[in-house]
User: What shape does this take?
Amino acid sequence: MTALLEVDAISKRFGGLHAVSAVSFAVVKNTISAVIGPNGAGKTTLFNLITGFLSPNDGHVRLAGRDITNAPPFKIAAFGAVRTFQLVRLFPEMSVIENLVVGAHLGTRGGVWSAIFRPPWAREQMRATETKGRQILELVGLAAHADVIATTLTYGQQRLLEVARALAAQPKLLMLDEPAAGLNHAETKELAQLIRRIRDGGTTVLFIEHDMNIVMSTAERVVVLDFGKKIAEGTPEEVQKDSKVLEAYLGGI
Ligand SMILES: Nc1ncnc2c1ncn2[C@@H]1O[C@H](COP(=O)(O)OP(=O)(O)OP(=O)(O)O)[C@@H](O)[C@H]1O
Ligand SMILES: [Mg+2]
Assistant: This one.
């Protein structure tokens, strides 16, 4: 049971608001974990703290044993923690495969600029990345759409492309912020299968979700946040029965 990610008493305050309060948990390598909690519970803030988009006021984050607290996002991505965002953030003018190639280069020599401006030394690297990118599109079910402009995809397909783009950076830990938001029932089922395939391929997955079906059908561990605090942690069955969790959700109605 090796912990890939260790979050140790991490806190973030926005003025007087305790968005994340002394939250600790670990994600075991090759598992699927979920972070759940009512709106405003601190889930996205927690992801921002892990991936370097925000600096914590207190606490530490370790990835594969390395302290990544306060490292910038591009370094954390290069170390292996790659995330998607709650709202779609694609390069709208680029094709599906181009979006992937740019995603992959976030963690390589020259970074995103070499992917866009293409100096000669970057071209060979890009060709290899494109081949890999097409394999990833195969995995997420978008291979037939590789050469269309990203914004012509359906919303559900655009969300899959975001997952694909994160995968193109070859993460150790893939972090998805509400990947099922806006997906229909069939798309959500496909996403659940995809998350399991990603884990089976050796990538650890941590995702935020409101959709309990996908949490129950994929996550091995669930961390529950409410008002910035971790109120429960365990298997989906355990947290579903937890009185504090029931209270947090029912209290919000
Ligand atoms: N940059 C910020 N500045 C000030 N307050 C913020 C900032 N980001 C988040 N917050 C506040 O911190 C709290 C936690 O927000 P966060 O976005 O982490 O919640 P969440 O659990 O992701 O919610 P949702 O399910 O709605 O996405 C909220 O009260 C939010 O308004
Ligand atoms: Mg959020």
Summary: The longest helix spans residues 120-140.
